[in-house]
Specification:
By secondary structure, the chain is mainly β. The chain has one domain. Helices cover 9% and strands 44% of the residues. Strands 1-2-5-8-11-14-17-20-23-26-29-31 form a 12-stranded parallel sheet. It has a 10-stranded parallel sheet with strand order 3-6-9-12-15-18-21-24-27-30, with no helix packed on it. The chain is elongated and about 65 Å long. The N terminus is likely disordered.
Length: 308
C-alpha cells in the first residue's frame, strides 16, 4: 500500500511539473528562483526571460498582474499573454525588447498578446529574424530605430488591434513574407510608418492591410521592388492622413516589381503628396477611394482596374 501511495504521489508530481511547463506564470510578486518549481501559479517567476527557459514549446507564459517583465529572447514556439485590462510591460533601456533570433524555425508560431513594449532608450521593439509572429492588442512605442524589424527566413506576420506609436520606423519588413494587418494604428513615425521591401532572395514580400489608420508619420507607407522580386501591398478601408507623404511606390526593375492596390480607402491631409510613384512601380485603384485635400499633386498616374 505504501508503495502504491508513493507511486501515486510521484505520478501526481510529474503531472504537475508537465502541466506547469505547458503553462508558466510570472507576477510582480514572483521570484526567478521559482524556476526550480517551474514558475507555477502558486510560485510564479518574475521575468519573461526566466519563464522562457521553463516553458515547453507551444506552451504559454502568462502575466498575472500589472508589472514590467523585462526583455526576452524567444527561441521556441510560444504564447506570451497577459490578462485583458492589466498592464504587462517590457521596458527597454537599451537594445531590443523582444528578439526572435536567427535559427528559429520559420514554422515556430510566436504569439504576443496584450503586451506594452516601450523604449526608455532602446532601439528596437521587436527584432525578428525567424519564426512566425502574431501580435494581438499590443502597443509598441518610442523606439529610436524600429517598432518591428523583420529580416530573414520568416513565415508570416499577423497583427490585430495593435498600436505602433512614435518610433523611428513603425514596421520595417524585408523578407519573403506575408503581412496581414487589421484594426491597427501606425502613428508618429519620424521616418516611415510601414516600410515594405522585396526580399533579395527571389521571394515576394506582401502586405494585406485592412481597417487600419496610418497617420502623422513622415511617410505613411513605402513599397519597394527589388531584383525582379515583387513588393506588393493591398490596402482596403485604410485611412492614410496627416503624413508628409501618404504612399510611395518605387521600382527600378522591368517588368514591374512593385504593386500597391487601393480599395475603399481614404488618403487625405498629407502635407505633401498623397501618392508618389517612381520607376516601373504601379499603384492600382478600383475607383472607390477618397483622395483629396493633400498638399501637392501626385507624382505618377494611378492605374484604374475593374472591380470583380
Amino acid at each position: 500500500m505504501k508503495l502504491l501511495a508513493s507511486l501515486a504521489l510521484a505520478s501526481a508530481l510529474l503531472s504537475s511539473v508537465s502541466e506547469a511547463a505547458q503553462r508558466v506564470f510570472v507576477a510582480s510578486y514572483g521570484s526567478d528562483s521559482n524556476a526550480a518549481m517551474n514558475c507555477t501559479l502558486a510560485a510564479p517567476c518574475r521575468s519573461f526571460a526566466t519563464a522562457m527557459t521553463i516553458v515547453d514549446a507551444k506552451g504559454e507564459v502568462v502575466a498575472l498582474d500589472a508589472a514590467g517583465y523585462g526583455p526576452v529572447v524567444i527561441q521556441k514556439a510560444v504564447t506570451i499573454t497577459a490578462n485583458a485590462g492589466f498592464y504587462a510591460g517590457i521596458s527597454v533601456a537599451s537594445g531590443t525588447g523582444v528578439t526572435l533570433p536567427v535559427g528559429l524555425s520559420s514554422s515556430a508560431e510566436v504569439t504576443l498578446r496584450n503586451l506594452t513594449i516601450n523604449s526608455i532608450g532602446g532601439s528596437r521593439g521587436i527584432d525578428m529574424r525567424g519564426g512566425s509572429l502574431t501580435l494581438e492588442n499590443c502597443v509598441i512605442s518610442n523606439f529610436a530605430d524600429y517598432g518591428l524589424y523583420v529580416e530573414g527566413p520568416v513565415m508570416g506576420i499577423r497583427i490585430v488591434d495593435s498600436i505602433f506609436r512614435a518610433n523611428g520606423m513603425g514596421l520595417w519588413l524585408q523578407s519573403g513574407l506575408h503581412l496581414t494587418m487589421s484594426g491597427t494604428k501606425v502613428m508618429g513615425s519620424t521616418n516611415v510608418g510601414i516600410f515594405l521591401m522585396a526580399a533579395p532572395n527571389g521571394q515576394r514580400t506582401r502586405a494585406t492591410i485592412s481597417d487600419s489608420v496610418i497617420s502623422d508619420n513622415h511617410t505613411g507607407i513605402s513599397v519597394i521592388g527589388n531584383l525582379n522580386t515583387l513588393g506588393e501591398a493591398a490596402l482596403t478601408r485604410v485611412t492614410i492622413t496627416n503624413n508628409s507623404y501618404g504612399i510611395t511606390a518605387s521600382s527600378t526593375e522591368s517588368p514591374t516589381t512593385t504593386f500597391v492596390t487601393l480599395s475603399a480607402s481614404t488618403i487625405t491631409g498629407q502635407w505633401e503628396s498623397a501618392i508618389t510613384i517612381s520607376g516601373t512601380a504601379e499603384v492600382r485603384s478600383i475607383g472607390n477611394n477618397l483622395i483629396d485635400l493633400n498638399g501637392s499633386p501626385d507624382s505618377g498616374a494611378i492605374t484604374t482596374i475593374p472591380a470583380r
